[in-house]
Amino acid sequence: MKIATYNVNGVNGRLPVLLRWLEEAQPDVVCLQELKAPQEKFPLEAIQNAGYHALWHGQKSWNGVAILSKEAPKERRRGLEGEEEDLQSRYLEAKIGELIIGCLYLPNGNPYPGPKFDYKLRWMERLKAHAELLITSGKPVILAGDFNVIPEEKDVYKPERWVNDALFRTEVRESFQELQGQGWTDALRERYPDEIIYTFWDYFRNAYQRNAGLRIDHFLLSPAMKDRLKKVVVDSHVRGWEKTSDHAPVWIQIADS
Q1: Is 63 known to sit in a ligand binding site?
Q2: Listed residue (64, 70, 62) closest to 33, CA to CA
Q3: CA-CA distance, 232 to 121, in Å (whole number)?
Q4: Which of 41, 47, 56, 159 could make an S-S bridge to 37, C-beta 3.0–4.6 Å?
Q5: pLDDT tens, position by position, 68-96
Q6: Which helix (H) or strand (E) holds 16?
Q7: What CATH number does the domain containing 104 carry?
């Protein structure tokens, strides 16, 4: 089974790129982030014509997450508990066969310091609370998406320039480590513990051409999934396509149970 995550940076504006990649990569499941489309503007017909069912949680102009699947997904949750007034579309969870998949778009948090950074930390606390329930269930679970967290220095080009960025702040990295400490496995680091591998390159200063990137798109696997991991791939060439997202698709291959 091939499961992907992809921050599309606007699902309608990047639809030709998304459809081209779906045709090329043929993933079974895709978690999309940053739809930047209200609920009624999701391009369902085009997604269905590409061979996928879809669940989506849209929001006008910002955020938005979706789960595409060749097998019909059953929605389990949209949004995280803890702040009833929070209307940002950032979390969607579904059951596909025996697998539970949480698709997330964690807040960016910049500028630091400030209310956006505070919101990011609160959102991470809410995520950890829900993730603990998932992992203690003993079920096969994957959390996938744009975490907006640079876990280690090797995950960013010139880390000294990022010390006060919300993606790399000590508080954020420690919170991510606490999340992993529940028993989650970082899929890419499980397969490639030491390599420099990025998933995002800014549009400015020829970042992609210079490979001046970040690793912020992650797969976290529950203990029931760790031994089923077979492959982890970043389709970095997609970042070089015309009118593409600033993120590359990332996918894992897992063995059947």
Answers
A1: no
A2: 64
A3: 28
A4: 41
A5: 999 999 999 999 999 999 999 999 999 99
A6: helix 15-25
A7: 3.60.10.10
Q: For the chain, how many structural domains are there in total? A: 1
pTM of the predicted model as reported, rounded to 2 decimal places: 0.98
247 noted as active-site residue: yes
pLDDT digits (tens, 9 = 90+) for 102-120: 999 999 999 999 999 999 9
Distances 237 to 17, 146, 188, 226, 240 between C-alpha atoms, Å:
12, 18, 18, 27, 5
Rounded CA separation 70/173 (Å) = 34
Catalytic residue among 6, 52, 91, 105: 105
Residue 110 marked as a ligand binder: no
Q: How far is CA 251 from CA 145, 161, 236, 248, in A?
A: 11, 29, 11, 10
Question: Which is catalytic among the residues 146, 155, 165, 217?
Answer: 146
Residue 34 annotated in ligand binding: yes
Sign of the CA dihedral running 219, 227, 195, 240: negative
Answer yes or no: are the C-beta atoms of 253 and 219 closer than 8 Å.
no
Domain of residue 133, residue span? 2-254
Q: For 76, list phi and psi in degrees, rounded to 5.
A: -110, -35
- Alpha carbons 245 and 71: distance in angstroms, whole number: 26
249: left (phi over 0), alpha (psi -120 to 50) or beta: beta
